[in-house]
Amino acid sequence: MIALLMMLMQIGPDPHVYKQTPLPLITQQRRDAPVPTTPMPLADPLSECMTRAHADPAAGLAYAHDWLTGAKSADARVRANQCIGLIDNDLADYAGAQTAFADAVAAVPADATTAVPIMAMAGNAAMANGDPALGLTWFDRALAVKGYDAGPARGAIEADRSRALVAQDRMADAGAALAEARRLAPGDAGVFLLSATLARRTKDLKAAQGYIETAASIDARDPAIGLEAGVIAMLSGHEAAARKSWKSVVSAAPDSSEAETARGYLGQLGPETPASLEPASPRPTSGTTP
Predict the structure, then answer these.
(1) What is the pTM of this model?
(2) CA 138/CA 141 separation, integer angstroms
(3) Whole-number Å distance between alpha carbons of 158 and 30
């Protein structure tokens, strides 16, 4: 039990996953629709590139490199490199992804707000490649661009920045970044999950409990939230609540990595005893339905 508690103080889920913008869906043309008399517009090259990559990553990369070679405008170079970066990221070639995103940024006019999301992609690729210092440089550069959206998108970058700061053991700075992220993105469950994890790591369990409850109220089915809720409950001395949270993760997302971790925690706790079956704390600790 002591070994489990010590381990839980140190570890926690990393909820960040870059969500690629979904491609537009093409609906089937109605049979009675008139046949167009003008040529249909060409498919968007970035959509075409990603469509090919989803079917065959090697074909997608070949398409992207051919597109880049023949690019006659800065916009084409940006988008081709962006496609290369996204494919490399999916293939876990994070160094290649970071380089491609950096090349995309280099083709964007200085201080253009359109470069900000790509800078964030480069930062996350650097983080995934084990270089939080470079990741922080990219996030700081993105946030320094004037005129970018001051809402949830900027808050997400602040949250990413907090991860880079935590990786460099700059906990106070990470806390400040997350406070700004919560202000900018009050509806982002991931921001509150990161806040709960940081508070738990710095042994502020009361704050961690509040943040995880907020995260659960925003996204009740995220297994990472249920997993972290159980960790916080266990460290707060509420074994029954911890078991309940971890069981809910296993039930709601049995094939997830979070469920695998939850099963490991439950296994370390061993069989339930009369003490562990006591009523859980009245404060909710899990974002999932048991």
Answers:
(1) 0.80
(2) 5
(3) 46
